[in-house]
Amino acid sequence: MFVPKRIIFEKDSLEYSMAKNILNRFKNKDGIEIIKLTSNKIKQHIPGEDLFSYYREGKKTLVVGVKKSLKFQSCKPSAHYQLPLVSGCMGQCEYCYLNTKLGDKPFVKIHVNIDDILNQAQKYIDERLPDITIFEGAATSDPVSVEPYSYSLEKAVVFFGERKNARFRFVTKYNDIDSLLDLNHNEHTEIRFSINTSSVINKYEHFTASRDKRIEASIKAIEAGYPVGFLIAPVFIYDNWKEEYHDLLLQLRKKLPNDLKFPITFEVISHRYTTTAKNIIVQVFPENELPMNDEERKFKYGQFGYGKYIYPKESLDEIKEFFMKEIEELFNNKEVKYII
Ligand code: SF4
């Protein structure tokens, strides 16, 4: 669970019950600064003279605000729309795509007007009837670490559970899902857990849940009847990578119940980076040991107009062959969505 160092309440946010609950929960806790704004000028309340320090202070900051624009971003190919419950994440993963996307806004922000957000979702659902509309809850955030006091996912899960023509999904590296287990989700919410080997987690991730805690949470979600998937990402090639990814999959296999209601899904994504991301990462994590030597990678133009450095073809083929074989051998009821 995210325990912030400072909480900034934007103008008007305290009119909402979610903000009041957050204030009541944290206002008497030692070491947590409470800032109530009469404007929405957040940046001046987060210390930091450069990207390095601003990132670290920003990551310890919770902003509570009202989502003004209710135009949802599209979220292809995994969903039709992003559901903007939360933005940002308490984690400090060196390779995280949010470093580029939210570089100047590293804080976690909870949107308290969840009723407006869900009403807007209803409009998008109605527009696409009779087709099913899918919403992604973690496109620019990991909403799980604030769930114990935002209850945003809880509201969304219940909302989508009641709607025949809508589905919800989110992905997480955290395990704070206990409050979601007894909800009437109606199998309309898919929870995906992003997992990796302990070596990768210990080396490149900071302030995320351990491998085993994520697996434990995934088993609870399966037992609560949710469709569950695993994102193995990013996959790195390093000494013993095959042994360690095998061990990861084996540990998962050992803990999975035998009577799965839904196939377990797998999405496997090899490590890649853009030049923009690399330039930010070297400032925020100057000591990082991420493999980002352009000469050792293949440059690939992406569909969004910028190129990225991916592993060369022989390595990608090896990754694909390895995961296909391992997943095929270890899991009975499964679906491999893609290995890229
Ligand atoms: Fe980024 Fe996910 Fe790590 Fe959060 S947990 S910093 S969203 S990679």
Automatic annotation (TrEMBL):
Q: Name one Pfam family in it.
A: SPL
One GO CC annotation: endospore-forming forespore
What GO MF annotations does this protein's record show? 4 iron, 4 sulfur cluster binding; DNA photolyase activity; S-adenosyl-L-methionine binding
Domain of life from the UniProt record: Bacteria
Name of this chain's protein: Radical SAM domain protein
InterPro entries tied to this protein: rSAM (IPR007197), SPL (IPR049539), SPL_Clostridia (IPR034559), SPL_firmicutes (IPR023897)
